[in-house]
Amino acid sequence: MLFSLRELVQWLGFATFELFLHLLALLVFSMLVALRMDLFNGLSWWLVFVPLFAADGLSTYFTTIVSIRLYQENEKRLAVLRLLWVLTVLSLKLVCEVLLCQKLAEQDRARDLWFGLIASALNISHPWGNTAVAASCCGEVWRCF
Amino acid sequence: MSLAQRVLLTWVFTLVFLIMLVLKLDGKVQWSWFLIFLPVWVFDGILILMLAIKMAGRCKPGYDPRNGSPDLRLRAWYLTAMLLKLGFCLTLCAKLERLADVKLTFVCIPLWTMLLGALVELGLNIFPERREA
Lengths: 145, 133
Known about the structure:
The complex is a heterodimer. Chain A is an all-alpha fold. Chain A has one domain. In chain A, 81% of the residues lie in helices and 0% in strands. Chain A contains seven helices and no strands. Chain B is mostly helical. Chain B has one domain. Chain B is built from five helices and no strands. In chain B, α1 packs antiparallel against α3, α3 runs antiparallel to α4 and α4 packs antiparallel against α5. The chains are: A mainly alpha, B mainly alpha. At the A-B interface, α1, α2, α6 and α7 of A face α1, α3, α4 and α5 of B. Chain B: It holds the Pfam family Tmemb_185A. Chain B: This is Transmembrane protein 60. Chain B: InterPro entries: TM_Fragile-X-F-assoc (IPR019396).
């Protein structure tokens, strides 16, 4: 569509299998949300969010394994950079999910928890994800002058 | 468009949508849900237009269909996925605005179809590599 799979992997820093995993988690999560809203109103929101938490955990595990393998193959710089990048993105995603789940699960007690605060984790991760792109844009503009 | 420009375009639209969504959810603005989804409509409109133009270019007389056929199939799938996403967003907005009394399960059907298609496409990209290895 707008991006090829290779470009998507390059931009997000996740492997194709990890993208598959997150997409699968999103599918199961959306099914559980629909079930929670239409059939089982008593179902806990923490249970509904389990697929997303599981995908984050599995993704962290795979990234750690890949980074260790890269480190053993003397690609030390790449291993550290990949580990730091993926862990940053995953931890921001996890913070956003936990806060959203808390807001939904404890609506009376979590009134001070704004949606703006919950989404700020995503807003932080977005500019970071685009730092490299912004740098290359600046480079292109600089070359024009 | 270069990768940097495409990423920047996606980022700007996502950021504007997130800001509008948060303002609506926190009760700071009383706009209609259709207006909140405006960045999504514009972004999807641009994508559908780009895809339609590319597909129309392939359907020109004199174009060899043997070379273009798989690519055209892929683009047709992309167009279907975009339309499914648009259908999901439209029905969701209608539900949130209480224009239609539909169950969330029915609203989510286009989204699930799109996600299943994307999973199949990703799976096809993963497993041939595994077999070669």
